[in-house]
Design a protein that fits this description.
The protein has 331 residues and is of the alpha+beta class. It is 35% helix and 11% strand. The strands form 3 sheets. It has a 3-stranded antiparallel β-sheet. The protein has a two-stranded antiparallel sheet with strand order 1-2.
């Protein structure tokens, strides 16, 4: 009886959240992000190497794990190289999140800009082809502006209409530094609440590079760098271990896989008493509305920004020169 009461209390609390925010009546067609909004969303990572883009998109569908991994890294700064890899390998995180521990500044940036991270994960899970097109569109714009070209740090090649970015060296990956609101040849509205992270942001119009991240020592782990890629053709998809990556996140709802108009009772209530997320409702509702039920609602509190995707563009660029950190170092 006690377990039944607890379950009913949790169910009713969910219903209250939905009722308060009015999501059951939200028009599905208003919740898809348009190409311009997606371009704004992918701007901070569109010029990263393909493998890193793949890892970020996949990990963004696990925003609660991004927070956990960043906190864990802060407490284990003494670990590096293979020792770090062995300890990371023991964690319960998705392989995409584990992979980003090779790039601590990137992980810290995703944690710092959690609203953006959650939005990015939602868009990738539910608008994969459109996100892929948005990335390629931004690469084309940066190339036309003269800011995207082969350097000693990375190779930029064109395959038909597709721009591919790969590290120049097999075991060293450089994360480009740039202002995502200026590098594409015209001022782009800044994502609301997005803040630059030292070592990843470079004020001005061009692209720079700091220190390279050595990925060779992580090659022995299944989530290592060389297991990731991006297939730009056939709709575009993250590739992990030579297969299409499929997110099993319980924080981001895959609206394309709704099975019914209600809760999926087979998986909503877990043995440990936590919820695994929402799996039903009107097709097209934003996943962020239900994000983080199995982690105290953190994602909803930190990442959800209203019933529509953006509610219009806000602001534009940064008045100051931004950060000019050299190596993507940690705070």
């Amino acid at each position: 009886m006690k377990l039944f009461q607890q379950g009913m209390a949790l169910f009713l609390s969910w219903c209250l959240v939905l009722a308060q925010n009015g999501y059951a009546q939200a028009p599905a067609q208003a919740l898809q992000q348009n190409p311009q909004q997606l371009q704004q969303l992918v701007a901070p990572i569109a010029l990263y190497p393909d493998g890193l883009v793949a890892q970020i998109l996949a990990a963004a569908s696990y925003p609660e794990q991004v927070v956990e991994a960043e906190s864990w890294l802060e407490k284990h700064k003494n670990l590096t190289g293979e020792k770090l890899g062995k300890e990371v390998n023991k964690q319960h995180w998705d392989n995409s999140v584990k992979a980003l521990t090779q790039f601590p500044a990137v992980l810290a940036n995703m944690n710092q800009n959690l609203a953006w991270t959650s939005e990015l994960g939602d868009a990738y899970v539910n608008q994969q082809q459109a996100v892929t097109q948005a990335i390629q569109t931004m690469r084309q714009k940066a190339k036309q502006a003269g800011n995207l070209k082969t350097t000693p740090q990375e190779n930029v090649t064109t395959q038909g209409q597709t721009i591919v970015i790969q590290p120049a060296a097999p075991d060293v990956v450089y994360v480009p530094q740039y202002d995502p609101w200026l590098v594409y040849g015209y001022p782009l509205a800044a994502f609301p609440g997005w803040y630059p992270y030292p070592g990843l942001f470079l004020g001005g119009l061009g692209i720079g590079f700091g220190l390279g991240f050595g990925v060779g020592l992580f090659g022995g782990f299944g989530w290592g760098w060389h297991n990731w890629g991006y297939d730009w053709h056939g709709g575009g998809r993250v590739v992990y271990n030579h297969n299409t990556y499929i997110s099993h996140s319980r924080t981001i709802v895959n609206r394309n896989n709704f099975r019914s108009a209600g809760f999926n009772h087979s998986s909503d209530f877990r043995g440990d008493g936590r919820s695994s997320g929402f799996h039903g409702g009107e097709r097209g509702m934003r996943s962020s509305a239900f994000s983080g039920f199995n982690h105290g609602g953190f994602a909803r509190a930190s990442a959800f920004r209203g019933g529509s995707s953006f509610g219009g563009f806000h602001g534009g660029g940064f008045g100051g020169g931004g950060f000019h950190g050299g190596g993507g170092g940690r705070r």
